[in-house]
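Predict fold of Integrase_H2C2 domain-containing protein; 135 aa.
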Amino acid sequence: MAGHYGAEGTYTRIAKNYYWTGMRKYITDYVKNCPDCIKYKASNQKPSGLLQTPVPAQRFETLAIDLFGPLPESKDGKRWILIIEDCTTKWVELFALPNATAKECSITLIEEVLLRSLKVLLRSLIRRHSSPPYQ
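Predicted 3D structure, encoded as tokens:
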């Protein structure tokens, strides 16, 4: 069994001595549909299966964020729900937003989740280091 050099390699080798109209397409189609190539060529595609999500090591390492809406406008002008889930603890928080813009979502994420988490972390560190040498 002789092998091909892929569509481009086969085209290059044949083009050294021959030419016809539509030659590149013909060679590409031929190599793509060659029964021996289909049968014997190793697949470059990974076997299908369930994707494995990396397991986060600590709280707020990985967040899942989504938007729900637009909903009918509330009395205070909110039409969207920003959903934030901590993938480690499965803790979910919902925030009503007037607009579903990147700026609005970013501000809410930073002010309502990240800064609060930072405050909790800092309090924990301060408590940990409040032994006599650190007082």
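The chain has a mean pLDDT of 83.
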